[in-house]
């Protein structure tokens, strides 16, 4: 724990996942301490070794932030940011982030730098702004939630990253290997806007991040600004067709593909036929098991994200 005389913003109660992110976690922590010490800001860093320890760490950070009128800050990849946000959402506390992941769609959307020092300096001048988050059943997601093939892609990607490093080309290579294997189709029922649709698909993804949707070429990305979420998926396809969809996504043309469907919605229920009561779901890259049916909606309570002023915002591209 570090405590320095209070002045300016804060205090910050920082939850850092030492096993998350593309960079050296100890180096990132040293950078955070240097910037915050120089600014005379009070802070505590609660470090954990893996994601299983996050709930207890978040509970500690939330309790201290409530008692001392502070903010909770998450340091790590998108999955870590999402897990910490889950514990902060209902409290109304300010929530800050220092992104450390491979893609960092959430941070980039709000101009929060992937560079640790720049993100820490921006945090000093940031102010809370309400931002939309998605819910599936009672679980929060910042970027997307998915079932079927996409969670398998994410699981395989983590294996490759642990072996070869957290780089984007490693993520692409692991996707190519995963798609080369045979996959079961999901038999699902979609219910939204008073309509029921039955179909088979390798995967369903529900998005809450305009930057990601725009980069892969999904036209409904603008619907997020209207307080909605966007569902997308693929019709049954072979390996070559799936490779084609991956390439279209890389060139921002996924929405043009014949095999792809997408639509915006306020509420969506997904029933998975022929399966047990629980289904594997990926929430911002982290895998969990949820009871079915799955109910998707926008959280009625926004997240109070600490967003830097325009002058300190990083490029989102």
Secondary-structure class: alpha+beta
The CATH architecture of the largest domain can be named as Sandwich
Strand content of the residues, in percent?
25-35%
| Strand tally | 18
**Mean pLDDT across every amino acid position:** 84
Helix content: 25-40%
Shape descriptor: elongated
| CATH class label of the largest domain | Mainly Beta
The third-level CATH topology of the largest domain is Tumour Suppressor Smad4
Alpha plus pi helix count: 9
Strand arrangement, largest sheet?
7-6-17-14-9-10
Can you tell me the residue ranges where pLDDT is under 50 for at least 5 consecutive residues? 1-8, 238-257
The end-to-end span amounts to 36 Å
Keywords: Kinase, Transferase
Pfam families: DAGK_cat
GO molecular function, one term: kinase activity
InterPro entries: ATP-NAD_kinase_N, Diacylglycerol_kinase_cat_dom, Lipid_Phosphate_FormReg, NAD/diacylglycerol_kinase_sf
């Amino acid at each position: 724990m570090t405590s320095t005389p209070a002045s300016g913003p804060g205090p910050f109660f920082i939850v850092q996942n030492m096993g998350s992110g593309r960079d050296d976690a100890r180096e990132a922590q040293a950078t955070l301490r240097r910037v915050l010490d120089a600014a005379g800001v009070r802070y505590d860093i609660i470090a954990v070794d893996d994601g299983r320890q996050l709930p207890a760490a978040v509970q500690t950070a939330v309790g201290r932030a409530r008692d001392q009128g502070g903010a909770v800050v998450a340091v790590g990849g998108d999955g870590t940011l999402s897990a910490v946000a889950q514990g902060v959402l209902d409290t109304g506390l300010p929530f800050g982030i220092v992104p450390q992941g491979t893609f960092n769609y959430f941070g980039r959307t709000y101009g929060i730098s992937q560079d640790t020092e720049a993100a820490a300096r921006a945090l000093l001048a940031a102010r809370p702004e309400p931002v939309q988050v998605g819910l599936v059943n009672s679980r929060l997601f910042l970027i997307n939630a998915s079932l079927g093939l996409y969670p398998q892609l994410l699981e395989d990607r983590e294996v490759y990253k642990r072996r070869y490093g957290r780089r984007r080309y490693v993520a692409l290579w692991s996707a190519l290997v995963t798609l080369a294997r045979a996959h079961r189709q999901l038999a699902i029922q979609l219910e939204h806007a008073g309509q029921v649709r039955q179909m088979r698909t390798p995967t369903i993804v529900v998005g809450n991040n305009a930057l990601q949707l725009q980069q892969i070429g999904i036209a409904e990305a603008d619907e997020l600004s209207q307080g909605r979420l966007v569902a997308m998926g693929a019709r049954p396809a072979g390996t070559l067709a799936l490779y084609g969809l991956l390439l279209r996504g890389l060139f921002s043309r996924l929405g043009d593909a014949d095999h792809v469907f997408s639509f915006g919605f306020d509420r969506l229920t997904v029933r998975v036929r022929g399966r047990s009561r629980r289904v594997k779901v990926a929430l911002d890259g982290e895998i969990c098991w949820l009871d079915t049916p799955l109910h998707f909606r926008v959280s009625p309570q926004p997240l109070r994200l600490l967003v830097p002023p325009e002058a300190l915002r990083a490029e989102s591209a």
